[in-house]
Write a structure and sequence with these properties.
Elements lengths: L1 E6 L2 E6 L5 E4 L11 H10 L7 H5 L5 E6 L7 H14 L7 E6 L8 H8 L1 H6 L1 E4 L7 E7 L2 E5 L1 H5 L2 E7 L2 E2 L3 E2 L13 H9 L22 H13 L3 E7 L5 E7 L1 H16 E4 L3 E7 L9 H12 L2 E10 L11 H5 L4 H10 L3 H12 L4 E5 L1 H8 L10 E4 L2 H8 L7 E4 L6 E4 L2
Parallel strand pairs: 3-19, 4-5, 4-9, 5-6, 9-12, 14-20, 15-16, 15-19, 16-17, 17-18
Antiparallel strand pairs: 1-2, 7-8, 10-11, 12-13
Helix pairs in contact: 1-3, 10-13, 12-13
């Protein structure tokens, strides 16, 4: 079976016996919305819960529109212009609107990065700023004794706060978008760390995570994010579902909580994919850039692929990782050889990259992970890192990965061409 799988901004060819392929985990997607402007206006005028956006923005003079950052914003240039035209049409001047990127603790954008995210016309004509998690955030009433609530001053000072985000699966929050644009997207570092620290208590005696991809019900992390966002009080939300090319295939707008739940249900119906059984070999591509921009982001694809691999099996993950490992401390956390020691360090000195590293390594105790990345392989060959613990290997090309994982080309396998977006659901 020959297949082109996305790898960064290019592709890689996988060649395995077609007779051994048990599933290609790639849903048939609905077509992109033909007249996106009209579809968005329809949703803004006929919201899920609450009043139309036209009634909400009327008379407001400090409108803040929150958008995702570049790691999650592949469709921003499609849906943001219609939203801004609608706001302007309803008598809000451009100088009264600020576009605020929900960077959380991710790297802030360069000028060119902002332009790439929203487009040159918007950066020229509208105020676009990044959230700064390190300074100037406003302290609101704490969520509890261990969770301070520090929020971007632009969001706190807005007289109309609009969330304009994208739906996706998230390995811990269940789904992206909605409340996540506020918490952790607009939170100070202390709050981001405290929110994620809480998930350590959500691992049951068997080691299974209650906070997991595709789950909103009984997901403690989702629940605390909803509470945190509610304290800030967004007025309206526009939720879009993109396909793998960044084209919009679904739009839901309205009450920030209700509309997000509806959008997540619609997304889940499309992107959750039934598979008959877990298999000894899973070949997964993150889906190319930006899903494989670094190893930290590539973990989301591994988390989904893990649902399809049999215990003790192998996931081969194509992830170019052009920007390397990710946040500076992520690799340091990956090097910790003992999962017990890792958790103890997290409990005493929590960091979000350490949390992601723990989740990745926990899965790597259950299966073998072979990452295909020329960038990371060069780093490994240069001696800049020690050998990774657990069953994690880095190789430079797909052929090497396949030779290591299935030297006799005999194993049954499944293919996941866009693993960052598809959630396998075992039915057998």
């Amino acid at each position: 079976m020959n297949a082109n799988l996305r790898y960064g901004r290019g592709s890689a060819v996988v060649d395995l016996p077609e007779g051994n392929c048990r599933a290609v985990v790639q849903p048939i997607l609905p077509p992109p919305i033909g007249d996106l402007d009209a579809a968005i206006v329809q949703c803004l005028n006929n919201p899920v819960g609450g009043k139309p956006l036209s009634a909400i923005v009327e008379g407001r003079r400090k409108v803040v529109v929150v958008i995702p950052d570049a790691t999650r914003g592949e469709a921003v240039q499609a849906y943001l212009p219609p939203l801004l035209r609608y706001i302007e049409h309803h008598h809000v001047r451009r100088e009264e609107v600020t576009l605020l990127t929900a960077t959380g603790t991710h790297h802030r954008h360069s000028g060119a990065g902002l332009t790439a995210l929203v487009g040159p016309e918007i950066t020229r004509d509208w105020a676009v700023v990044d959230h700064n998690p390190d300074a100037g955030n406003v302290e609101l009433e704490p969520l509890d004794d261990e969770t301070p609530l520090l929020i971007d001053p632009l969001a706190v000072g807005a007289d109309c706060l609009i969330l304009a985000g994208q739906i996706s699966f998230h390995y811990c929050a269940g789904f992206g978008g909605g409340r996540k644009l506020v918490a952790p997207g607009l939170c100070g570092c202390e709050t981001v760390q405290a929110l994620h620290r809480r998930t350590l208590a959500n691992i049951d005696a068997a080691g299974d995570w209650q906070s997991r991809a595709g789950a909103l019900r009984h997901n403690p992390f989702h629940e605390i994010l909803v509470e945190a966002a509610g304290r800030v009080g967004p007025d309206f939300a526009l939720n879009v579902s993109p396909n793998w090319q960044g084209e919009v295939i679904g739009v839901v707008a309205g009450d920030p909580v209700q509309s997000h739940v509806v959008a997540c249900l619609q997304y889940d119906e499309i992107f959750r994919f039934p598979v008959a059984e877990r298999l000894p070999l899973v070949i997964a591509s993150c889906g190319g850039w930006p899903f494989d921009v670094n190893f930290y982001q590539a973990h989301k694809a591994f988390d989904n692929a893990f649902r399809a691999v049999a215990p003790g099996g192998t996931v081969v993950l194509l992830a170019e990782c052009a920007e390397g490992w990710g946040p500076g401390s992520f690799l340091r956390w990956l090097r910790i050889a003992s999962l017990k020691e890792h958790r103890e360090r997290l409990e005493s000195d929590f960091e979000v990259p350490g949390h992601t590293a723990y989740a990745l390594k926990w899965k790597a105790t259950k299966c073998r992970l072979i990452v295909v990345s020329e960038t990371l392989a060069r780093t490994t060959e240069a001696g800049e890192i020690a050998a990774l613990p657990f069953q994690i290997e880095i190789v430079a090309d797909l052929n090497t990965a396949l030779a290591k994982s299935d030297p006799n080309r005999a194993l049954p396998y499944c293919m996941m061409p866009v693993a960052s977006s598809c959630l396998p659901e075992v039915t057998g």
